[in-house]
Write a structure and sequence with these properties.
heterodimer; A: Hypothetical Protein Aq_1857, Chain: A; GMP Synthetase, Chain A, domain 3; B: alpha+beta; Dna Ligase, domain 1; D-amino Acid Aminotransferase, Chain A, domain 1; 4-stranded parallel beta sheet; 4-stranded antiparallel beta sheet; 12 helices
Chain lengths: 203, 412
């Protein structure tokens, strides 16, 4: 972890100004900012940023200097947030804090590279896609991270009632056979958006 | 490692839940269905194509398969393959409800006859063919009555008629539904039959259980808090545990146990639907399968297990006595389709998920697809799931979350 006196989380000028404006508006210098990793899933990392009063800190919390205010984190969140950056963004749809965290980069945000990814992609191209193409489907490798393969199903596979069977009985079996060092396979498809599923569930 | 043959209908809502359960139990899975799996060639023994509606042929295929890949259990995820699962299990000596009992329970008219003959509270009923004279059938009916196509499920084609004129309209509508391609494919010769039975007043409840050696193991009694008075019988909210008085719940469970015994269902899941009028419980359906759609999501057990895991455990001969439903309440809302057309948008998704207690929302019809309300429709718009300390809280959360959804349908 970084030096305890300095926050491991960087606040952009606009994020810091927003916090300061809040503190000034409330005329209470004792307010602190709590940052928490609400969900560490790389499929859907989520964060909570709250203004808290002194009695809302616990003995386990770690406290950092945020340059004008205290930044409070649970120890586990502090580890996961080391090197993260907090920004304040304003758009036509609203405004809010945005956290960019290299430790919990969203799946698909890193370039596909490396020998493991190459081998997985080769298996998908050679064995999987010719099969699912018969049902109008295709499977795309999104990322390989920590030996977990993240896949996206498209075309006839997206939203198909049998997608889980295709994944477990076909894709997973051939990937584990051909690339035995992989430790898991995750389907990151939004099946609810499937426009042309090969089979739709019904009563 | 034991191998389970999992029979999935072509349009199953349950594939993911059952496949996941089999993996958690660390058993080999063969998925049997009526169409060839996309990647069948990659997993020898991993899938089995049964081809067509012929039960004897499907059983012969399964028995042949079992000589190469011995089976420890055969489980049908839903109604479509129950008869095949029962017949193949009998042929291979595996744990399952007997074929004869499954046949009786699946046919609502036979079920009614057998239960009534044994003295179970039953309404007046009559079976007609859609090719019969509608006016004569209307003249012979007792009102109010409910018309139910024997072949369809989940309230599809079920219509209440209070007068002969309404009977005639309902008859015509059911005739048209039964002529639809999927209805014809679904049930072969039974497709033309309609069960006409007296409307039973009262509230509706469901019971989920597993019969073990003839003894019903009740897993949940579920309230259906929306009135089911017709003219159509859309299922919406299911909440467990039931808020009915203990004595009434005992009557409900006792009625299901008695019905199960009369029908001869002795080993496997049971999903029962009943009407409760005062303290009296009358069966509407005693199905030799588990709850449909995605509704099993709300049933969780400890030690940690899903309903599908319990069904597989039992089929594989493992005792399920140690499992009990987790404390607290759970509920699901089957999102109704209110108007026909093309689904353009489901707004308010995030707002619905923000309601305390709401655990999930799944829209199962993609935007751009046709939506058809009951009694003609055969799909759910989606499912909303909730968990809380009490059933009242669960029901309230489901209603508030549903009110936040903005379903836009373009009329076609």
């Amino acid at each position: 972890m970084s030096n305890p006196s300095t926050s491991p989380v960087e606040f952009t000028d606009s994020a810091r100004d927003t916090v300061r404006q809040f503190l000034q508006a409330n005329e209470d210098a004792n307010f602190a900012v709590r940052i928490r990793v609400a969900s560490p899933s790389p499929l859907d990392p989520r964060y909570e940023i709250l203004m808290i009063e002194p009695d809302e800190k616990s003995a386990e919390d770690v406290v950092f200097d945020g340059d004008g205010f205290d930044v409070v984190m649970e120890p586990e969140s502090a580890k996961l947030l080391d090197g993260a950056r907090v920004d304040w963004i304003e758009t036509t749809n609203g405004s809010g804090f945005k956290v960019e965290n290299p430790n919990l980069a969203l799946i698909g945000s890193k370039p596909l590279q490396g020998p493991l990814a190459d081998r997985v992609r080769q298996v998908i191209d050679q064995f999987v896609n010719p099969g699912v193409a018969q049902h109008g489907g295709q499977v795309t490798l999104v990322e390989v991270r920590d030996k977990i393969v993240y896949l996206q199903m498209g075309g006839g596979c997206q939203g198909c009632g049998m997608a889980s069977v295709t994944l477990s009985q076909g894709i997973e079996r051939i990937l584990r056979e051909q690339v035995p060092e992989i430790e898991g396979i995750e389907d990151v498809t939004n099946h609810g958006d499937g426009q042309n599923p090969y089979i739709s569930a019904s009563k | 490692m034991p191998r389970v043959l999992l029979l999935l209908s072509r349009t199953s809502y349950r594939a993911e839940a059952f496949v996941a359960a089999a993996h958690r139990l660390d058993v080999d899975v063969t998925v049997g269905s009526n169409h060839k799996q996309a990647l069948a060639a990659l997993s020898p023994g991993g899938s089995l194509t049964l081809g067509g509606e012929d039960v004897d042929r499907a059983v012969a295929i399964i028995v042949g398969f079992a000589s190469d890949y011995p089976l420890a259990a055969i489980v049908a995820a839903e109604d479509d393959f129950i008869q095949v699962a029962a017949a193949a299990s009998e042929a291979l000596g595996l744990t399952h409800h007997p074929l004869e009992a499954v046949r009786s329970a699946r046919n609502k008219a036979v079920m009614r006859q057998r239960l009534k003959a044994a003295g179970v509270p039953s309404p007046w009923f009559h079976v007609a063919s859609v090719d019969d004279d509608a006016e004569a059938a209307a003249a012979n009916a007792r009102y109010p009555c409910v018309l139910k196509p024997l072949a369809l499920s989940a309230s599809r084609g079920v219509i209440r008629a209070d007068t002969p004129a309404e009977f005639g309209l309902a008859w015509s509508r059911i005739r048209a539904i039964l002529a639809q391609r999927d209805a014809v494919m679904r049930s072969g010769h039974a497709v033309a039959e309609i069960l006409i039975e007296a409307y039973m007043p009262g509230r509706e409840v469901a019971v989920e259980g597993i019969v073990v050696g003839g003894e019903l193991r009740t897993l949940a009694v579920l309230d259906k808090p929306d009135p089911m008075e017709g003219p159509y019988f859309e299922e919406t909210i299911l909440v467990t545990p039931s808020r009915l008085p203990d004595g009434v719940q005992r009557n409900i469970v006792s009625c299901v146990q008695r019905s199960v015994a009369i029908l001869g269902l002795d080993d496997g899941p049971v999903h029962a639907e009943l009407r409760v009028d005062g303290e009296r419980a009358s069966p509407l359906e005693i199905a030799p399968r588990s709850i449909g759609g995605r509704c099993s999501t709300i049933l969780r057990f400890e030690p940690e297990a899903t309903l599908e895991e319990l069904i597989l455990h039992h089929a594989l001969g493992t005792a399920i006595d140690e499992y009990s439903r987790v404390p607290g309440a759970g509920g699901v809302m089957m999102l109704p389709i209110l108007e026909a057309g093309v689904l353009r948008e489901v707004g308010g998704f995030e707002a619905a998920l923000e309601i305390p207690g709401i655990e999930g929302l799944e829209i199962t019809i993609p935007v751009g697809h046709k939506v058809v309300p009951l009694p003609e429709g055969n799909r759910y718009l989606g499912f909303l799931f909730a968990r809380a300390a009490t059933s009242d809280q669960v029901e309230a959360a489901l209603r508030v979350a549903y009110a936040r959804l903005d379903v836009k349908v373009e009329h076609s």
